Amino acid sequence: MNETxxxxxxxxxxxxxxxxxxxxxxIMQQAEQMSGGRVRxxxxxxxxxxxxxxxxxxxxxxxxxxxxxxKEYKLTEKGRQVLENELDRLRRLVxxxxxxxxxxxx
Amino acid sequence: MRKSITKWxxxxxxxxxxxxxxxxxxNGWTLDGVGFCRYHFIKTEPGEYSVRLQYLPVGAETDxxxxxxxxxxxxxxxxxxxxxxxxxxxxxxxxxLFSDLDSRIDHLNKIASLMLFMAILNLVIGLINSRxxxxxxxxxxxxxxxxxxxVGRIHGKxxxxxKERRIRE
Lengths: 106, 169
What we know:
- The complex is a heterodimer of chains A (106) and B (169).
- Chain A is mainly alpha-helical and 106 residues long.
- Chain A has helices spanning 9-17, 24-34, 43-56, 77-105, and strands spanning 22-23, 59-61, 72-75.
- In chain A, 59% of the residues lie in helices and 8% in strands.
- The model of chain A has no long low-confidence stretch (mean pLDDT 92).
- Chain B is 48% helix and 23% strand.
- Chain B contains four helices and six strands.
- The radius of gyration of chain B is 18 Å and the shape is globular.
């Protein structure tokens, strides 16, 4: 799979939230807060994405605290690299948009 | 106050089933229990709850998933075979189990895979049965036709989502 493809918005916010270790509900809250309430990750979507991201090695599951049903996740070095590539892509996206639309408005 | 309704939905019409349960909730009857083709409702304020259902094999309903559901304010109403019913107070905000097209497509794929597997299984059993003196093979073949139709319906829904996915998330 080509790792330079664009991330989905859900993936982007999940990875970004995992800059510090979080469990599922923490990710939901953080994504919602960072996006100003626009991105509300639903449980089914988040849970599926967490499994996929673990399989890809972009995040890892931390050892479970005794007796807790919740699992914490953390961004890996590989995941961080993916995020940085995405950020470069987004910067360009914004710059191009501003260059074209900015001109029209002027 | 409580009431129960017997109603049949085909698995590929799960979205219609969900719509019906939503309409019941809007009218103040919230799903409170499920049985085979049987729905139990409890009287609530109209629109107090929102109801959703998910195809979720027993093994896929992990402790972690249940914890995530509870924390996000979702109540689990019950399970019938591979389907789990959830409800959430509308005061918690819009209630969805899937928040993007990819996960909705994935959900449909899982349903279609099971139906396809069951169809093939029934085809094999039907062929074996057709050789036996008691002619019961036709029952399996009817089931195969139904399941094949179901897979087709699910594919139709998936294609609509995939078309959308080509231009947005």
